[in-house]
Amino acid sequence: xxxxxxxxxxxxxxxxLSLQAVLLLFTSLSSMARAQTKETxxxxxxxxxxxxxxxxxxxxxxxxxKNAPTILLLHGLPSSSRMFEPLFDRLSDRYHLVAPDxxxxxxxxxxxxxxxxxxxxxxAEVMNHFTEALGLSHFSLYMQDYGGxxxxxxxxxxxxxxxxxxxxxxxxxxxxxxxxxKTRREFWADRAANESALRANLLSLxxxxxxxxxxxxxxxxxxxxxxxxxxx
Length: 232
Known about the structure:
Blueprint: H1 2-37, E1 47-53, E2 56-63, E3 70-74, H2 85-91, E4 96-100, H3 120-134, E5 139-144, H4 147-157, E6 162-168, H5 180-189, H6 191-203, H7 205-213, H8 225-228
């Protein structure tokens, strides 16, 4: 009787200790998994700022150490500096990133066309004054779409400021413009007769979707938020 009781007690203790060991093992593994999957905190969070330039409130995003190499990112149409948020997340540990919204775009002022000339020459002038207001004397220039004609004009005015060029889908000459621009040129010549055609060509949901996805056969790679939540 005593032997059986002792044996049962021994078995019970062994089972208890085995369960304790298993629980300890699972606890350790869970802690390791949490440590491995925990996201690395962003060291240089993006700041959302405005600055007065030529009487306009210019909005811009800024991240990264200011003593690191600077990249000035110029957005395209119909977009804003918001398009560069993913790059900010990936590059702000190594670069000083600055991305402004042009006048009439994003969160910058939208002056009336009768009071502000919406030309590439004028926008480039404002952007040059923007860099001066921030004290950006040397930088790499990232140009996307409209950023091309804006950025190249900035370079012509101050070539000594630009150290490197990153060009994404930007055209700087008439020969590079595609068939889409036929409708836009006709609109410039006769607005009343071509306004409805321009809206379909430039502002429709289908046209906006095409700007983001193009002719990519793998449409599932593209987040539809890109063309449904576009900031003009």
